[in-house]
Amino acid sequence: MSVCNDLHAEHSTAWSQAVSHPFLEACRDGTLDLKAFDTWLVQDYLFVLEFARFMALAITKAPYRHFHTLLGGIIALEDELSWFQGCLGTRGINLEEEAAKAPCQEYIDYMHSCNDQPYPIHVTVLWAIEKAYHEAWHAHQPPQPNQAPYDYATERWASEPFSKYVKELQAVADDALASATRDERTAARAAFINVCRLERDFWAMAYET
Which residues contact 177 (CB under 8 A, 6 or more apart)? Predict the structure, then answer.
């Protein structure tokens, strides 16, 4: 039994809206405006900075058997932040002049609010965020490599290593939810739905001026 699979199935419409968006389609076919991509790139970098803190706090609640997966995720985030900084530097974007837009800040605030939640809820949010990114980019990858100018983003989150990590993280979340109380499972379901909504709004933010 997988509680995570159940959440995915029960809320398929919300999930589809989280992982499908014109932004991703335009990335795939190379028609996305460079300004929209830069907006997304900056905001995602700011989000990942806070996501690293969110993941680190999950370890303070986790049983030792989950450490390997969670620590591996944190190590990968160091490389991811360096990747963002390299991309933004190449594009001449000064991060000191950038601030989180409303949808990004709302997502960050919600994520931080989950820091005070029991571990099963915290790790469900963690899994949902990572799975949404992998599925969104994997579903919208171009049919052939190097077809569009944004392939380097697709290749990162649609990769097999990231897919493997997301599967391991789901196993961790399922393990935590297996021993969760009824109230915790109810809260985890609400959290999953919130992540779906926030992911949907994050893609749309790329078109804000």
Answer: 3, 4, 120, 124, 184, 185, 188
Q: Considering only CA atoms, which of 142, 41, 43 is closest in space to residue 102?
A: 43
Range of the domain at 172: 3-205
Query: What pLDDT is attached to residue 159?
Result: 87
Low-confidence ranges of the chain (pLDDT < 50): none
Q: Please tell me whether 44 is known to bind a ligand.
A: yes
174 annotated as belonging to a binding site for a ligand: no
CA distances from 193 to 32, 151, 162 (A): 28, 29, 23
The pLDDT tens digits for 12-33 are 999 999 999 999 999 888 889 9
Kindly list the catalytic residues: 199
Domain count, the chain: 1
Query: What amino acid occupies position 203?
Result: W
Select from 164, 129, 2 the least CA-distant residue to 58: 129
Q: Is 50 annotated as a binding residue?
A: no
- Residue 108 sits in a domain of what CATH number? 1.20.910.10
